[in-house]
Amino acid sequence: MNAPNQPGSKADRDALRHEMAAAGCTAADIAVEMRTRYRMRPREAWRHARGWTLQTAADRITQASSGHPGEAVAADASLVGKWEKWPGPSARRPSTAVLMAMASAYDCRPADLLDLLDRQELPDADLRVLTQAPLAPEPETIVAPPTALVPPTAPDLVRMAANESATWAQWAEASNVGDIALEQLMAETRALATDYLTSDPVVLFTRTRQLRDRTFTLLEGHQYPRQSADLYVAAGYLCGLLAWMSSDLGQLRDADTQGRTAWLCAELAGHNDLRAWVLSTRSKVCFWDGRLREAIAYARRGATCRPAGTVSVLLACQEADAWSQLGAHDEAIEALNRAEALRDSVLEADDVGGIFSCQPARQENYAAAVHLRVGEPVKALRAADNALALMATQTVRAYGTEAQIHISKASAHLATGEAEGALEALAPVLAMPPDHRLTPVTRRLYELTSGLGRQTGGATAGLRAAIEEFCVDSAPRQLALSPGQGAA
């Protein structure tokens, strides 16, 4: 005796469909029964009413859309499954073109593929188009399949194979992104990397996250391999930006997560410049997390990518920064000298620019900090003055870098016993608005206060009090006190 079919299993669904078809029920009748009995979304119910697999449905939807220029749909099994589950989690909203093609494939009205939840979530404009679409022809009665199938003849088999290849070619030829869209995506990425130098970091974080999500959504679709590579490059730079921003906002664990995803994108794209910038970002995160040996390892690994542009200079500066924090004088100065030599060999402009660029002022900022840590305050003061002079000639002045230069200058003054000079040098920093007071700035200020030691005097006491007040009202602290604002 055969065991009964498991409720909701494929065998159970097939048996229901055959039973209803034999009783003269239409596909619409079967879809309603499928929805009621198995709690299916309407699009999934219509597919099972036809007895199609996800891939079969994808092929039929792609074919149905081919007669509508400008509205071609490149469907695959994964996409159909996501369209069916929408608006549930990990699903994707089907566009009007998709729903029209789906209705044509299933021989029903687009409105038949929607339930109340769909209607509540769809944009009003889409809903008007779909509910006013003309009626499909009267649904035919599904005839129960014969018990025995007649095998196709040889010519039929050859024709079927050719049709299948043609259907696949049509899918492979379609793309969900064009060259203009890719160019726009990179242009927006460059704008974000530049705007971050001068704008509110939390606002820029939100914009970057939105653009990253758009890029991820495109990658989940179908495009030519070269377009996929370009999308991975954009996604890698955007995740790298989010890593950098997360670190600046004091969220180092989240920055590490973004860095790992950025590295995956760089590997998938096979893009050496992106690899180098991601490793630079990861070195930066390790430095501020106190993992100095890891910071050095990432910087050296980035140099092996032999990148174009200025990232090679930045990597050498980051290595020098970490060595100086470890107190390794010779290694730090050697890395600084290497950065200077690499500057002369830079021949190409940076791919993205902005935060992903190492201008001479930024290099001098690193030099000032390194010279301070290895006990060379006079050289540090000279480097800080050079950096400020270079910064004054730039069209875009990065407030974070400029603040660190002033801090280095103040520290150099303190190291030479000039507390008044230190207070004067810090004046532009202490005047910064709270949303510009990022972690590198507050941490450098804490370094400065530790250099005060037990010094006394009115200028020293005033300096210490001003720094403490500054750090209390900073962007990372505001973020930490705001629930639900974590980096994602």
Detailed description of the structure:
This protein is mainly alpha-helical and 488 residues long. 68% of the residues lie in helices and 0% in strands. The chain is built from 24 helices and no strands. The longest helix has 24 residues, at 225-248. The radius of gyration is 31 Å and the shape is elongated. The relative contact order is 0.06.
Features:
488 residues; 24 helices; disordered C terminus
Helix content range of the residues, please? 55-70%
Mean pLDDT: 86
Q: Write down the oligomeric state.
A: single chain
Low-pLDDT stretches are 135-144, 483-487
Strand content: under 5%
Summing up helix and strand content along with how strands pair, one would put the structural category as: mainly alpha
Characterize the biggest β-sheet: none
Helical run tally: 24
Whole-angstrom Rg:
31 Å
Number of distinct beta strands: 0
Order of helices and strands: HHHHHHHHHHHHHHHHHHHHHHHH
TL;DR?
This protein is mostly helical. Helices cover 68% and strands 0% of the residues.
Please specify the SSE layout and strand pairing.
Layout lengths: L9 H13 L4 H12 L3 H9 L3 H12 L11 H9 L10 H11 L9 H6 L2 H8 L22 H20 L5 H17 L5 H20 L4 H24 L3 H18 L2 H17 L3 H12 L7 H15 L3 H17 L14 H14 L3 H16 L6 H17 L3 H12 L8 H14 L5 H15 L2 H6 L8
Helix pairs in contact: 1-2, 2-3, 4-5, 4-6, 10-11, 10-12, 11-12, 12-13, 12-14, 13-14, 14-15, 14-16, 15-16, 16-17, 16-18, 17-18, 18-19, 18-20, 19-20, 20-21, 20-22, 21-23, 22-23
